Amino acid sequence: MTCPRRKRQTNTTCMLARRSRGFPDYGNILRANMRMLRAIVLQEDRNFIKVWSKTSKSTIAYDSGKIYFENYQSCYSCIDTHPQLLYKLPQRSKSEKIEDALQCSSPLEKSLSTPSDQKPCLLTLTANNWLYRLSAETGETLQGVYLSPNPKFKYLQWDEYQDRFYVKSIQNKVAPFARQAGITQNTVMHLAIFNVFPLEIVGMLEINKTVFGDTVTDVVLTQGTLAVSHSTKTVKLYSFDRILSEFMTKRLALGQPSPFHEGRTVGDAPYGIPENIVIKDCPPVLFEVSCSDHNVQIGGHPWHYIYTPPHKKHRGTYHICSLAEGILAKNGIQDMDCCSLETDLIYLHPDESGRIIHVGPNTVKMLRCVSGLKSDSPSEVVEDFSITTCRSNVAPRVTVTSSGRTVKRISQQLDDDPDQETFRTVEYEDEVDLLALVVTDGEEGEGRACVKLHDNSSGVLLKTIPLEQAWDVTYRNEMCFDKETIVHIEERNNGFHCHVYKLQTEAK
To answer: Which residues form a coiled coil (predicted)?
Structure first.
């Protein structure tokens, strides 16, 4: 009989000494470091204290330890005990306004030829169709790519996170007078697809009604699939790799001569990037579903998809079906049955465990899909755990006055009523493996809020963090939980406000 291994406390000094000696098992060291960081965050004598606030007239964004103000013109680092200004870009004209941005981390698995390509950067899209790669630390322009004089590009989105992204144009709409004259417009929009580290052009393509149908309304690129939305409330998925192999006419390289036009350089003004992916025929449909709001999610273990059927009777419900058979799973209809101003949300857990998070005003459920016992039996949706709010007794609908008169209350109290404890948002912090739930409670003052940290595996409450700044539910609020930092961004009538909380040891 073997003796059980004693659980040892990890010593920071020993860990650093082993690292200095070149201890080979990096994965164990990293996991041990994250366990230590989690233990520090959850210590009773440590709490998150508000250390900094700043206002802005334009949108505020937070990403990977950096806060961006004034449309990404200024950047603050949150690494220190108080946010510090990293850089402030020169004033730009209206035509050079930054429309959208993506932050790129450094690649760890490969070495690149140019040192600047190895460093983290900020990709920015300007109003005059320039794509810039800026240093994440200094704001210095590392590279500039001119997209095209037409159409107008406006959105930056990831296809595969930190690997491939795309730039999307605005929709090409026919002017009213042209529509009256019987003029039609087949082009819906354009996409320009890039690889990162190093920045490389994959191609430029046009989404055309002649190929995908007259009902096309929008297109997104996600996880290697082209998702096309239709006005008939249908979403169709196509393989983007197949589109590249069948319809790419020429390969392009930034800064190199264009294979289409002699004397022109790919990515330089005034011509930009030529269209080298010409879809002539509609590729085979991988998956098709009719859903409300063109919202469908695919993932889990085994593969399932989540959607709301486009019928009125299904409003407020989510259906979870097997991707292979297209069959509704057992317990696959999830309904919070809540009466609230904000709808409940359901999404795949970002920890890649295949689980599903269902967030309502007073309940958060952690679900997972389980394969059937037999090969022909449907899968089943089971609940791992649920987290509920602590609510006071709901006021009765019928009350009796002191004189004996019966009074019936007509209005029904909402499940997300500000006077009741309510879940507002749920964040997952992968490095400490914690769920952070923002909870508001109006019993002790309007806008009172706290962040509750729960174990990601069991849902057990581990720590409660009161927020000094009020959480006004009449405005848009956002919370970011990043290890030892909590960032609260709120939008009010007089602009945007950012509040930063840092983990500190409480004074005795």
So the answer is: none
